[in-house]
Amino acid sequence: MGIDLGTANTLVYVSGKGIVLQEPSVVAIDKDTMEPLAVGEEAKKMLGRCPGNVIAVRPLRDGVIADFDTAELMLKHFIRRVNEGKTLVHPRIVIGIPSGVTGVERRAVMEAALQAGARDVRLIDEPVAAAIGAGLPVAEPTGNMIIDIGGGTTEVAVLSLQGTVISESVRVAGDELNESITQYMKKVHNLVVGERTAEEIKIQIGSAYPTNADEDYIMEVRGLHLLSGLPRTVTIKGPEIRESMSEPLAVIVDAVKRTLERTPPELAADIIDRGIMLAGGGALLKGLDTLISHETGIVVHIAADPLSCVVLGTGRVLENISQLDRVFSGRSRNL
Q: What domain range includes position 278?
């Protein structure tokens, strides 16, 4: 079983079946009994709409486990769902994790998976998994550059011969883009909007680079007016949302530039020939490929299915474990 344990979404791949589960990484818990009421899509609908005795929790922050018990509950639920309720199944699991996590954070992920019923846990760095999932020839002696922009982290890596040559992990990604939109709406329009509304704004009219269609991107946003304290609707345009996201986007571009500056010349030549691969949910932001290409002077390709790259990579590694054994960054003891 391959798992992309993401800040925003968790995806599960089962050998022979493909991707069998794609759900938001959210758990709704009853405060009185501490029992989970809903997991995944159902729980996400409750974000910001819960009564006093229910809390909707995102157990992962910045790509790592922030709430261990809830993460374990979520993993157990997903593993049970994938196995159609069978409790005696103890799968071998490969989990994609950010390349910049600490040893303690790695152990937390392993322990959560073991407690959730795994027989053997192996960890793979997300950029490596994303590159394999995007179809890059990571086993060959050529330079491959991948940028994986998730919900909590942006991973930039140069890969060759099944290994990471240079990598950089910055904890600025989709969540920070949403946060910058929330702050902008508060500062400029005096409107308080929730996390889900900010994400909808980003998806519908957000962009990273100016285009001719900019003026066509208009959206009505409902929220709470700061001055009157009453619900209010305001109309916003694409260019102002692009401006609001400029700071986190600049951090991502700087990480790409720093990685390129440290890349050995032979591999840099390969990257210029092949281009840069963009994966993760952040790759779907309009104009992001153009922005990175403009700033680096290198062609940027978007993966065929950017959201699924990491989990597809974990699945391919599982199915070719003998050829791709060197890609793992950590493993558990066999149980």
A: 138-303
Higher pLDDT, 51 or 160: 160
The Cα–Cα gap between 281 and 252 comes to 14
Q: Would you place residue 329 in the very low, low, confident or very high pLDDT band (cuts 50, 70, 90)?
A: low
Q: Note whether residue 133 is domain-resident.
A: no
Phi, psi dihedrals of residue 108, rounded to the nearest 5°:
-60, -40
Q: Is the pLDDT of residue 38 over 60?
A: yes
* pLDDT higher than 50, residue 333: no
The residue written with tokens 């390349």 in the block is 99
- Decide: 156 and 259 in contact? Cβ < 8 Å: yes
CA distance readout (Å), 47 to 41, 50, 122, 196, 252: 10, 7, 32, 8, 27
**Does residue 84 sit within a domain?**
yes
Structural domain total, the chain: 2
- pTM to 2 decimal places: 0.86
pLDDT-derived band at 40 (thresholds 50, 70, 90) equals: confident
Cβ atoms of residues 11 and 19 within 8 Å: yes
Let me know whether 170 and 237 are in one domain. yes
CATH code of the domain in which 161 resides: 3.30.420.40
Burial code (b: 16+ CB inside 10 Å, e: under 16) for 197-224 equals bbbbbbeebbbbbebeebeebeeebebe
Q: What is the mean pLDDT of residues 252-257?
A: 94
Are 9 and 31 members of one domain? yes
The C-alpha atoms of residue 157 and residue 140 are separated, in whole angstroms, by 16
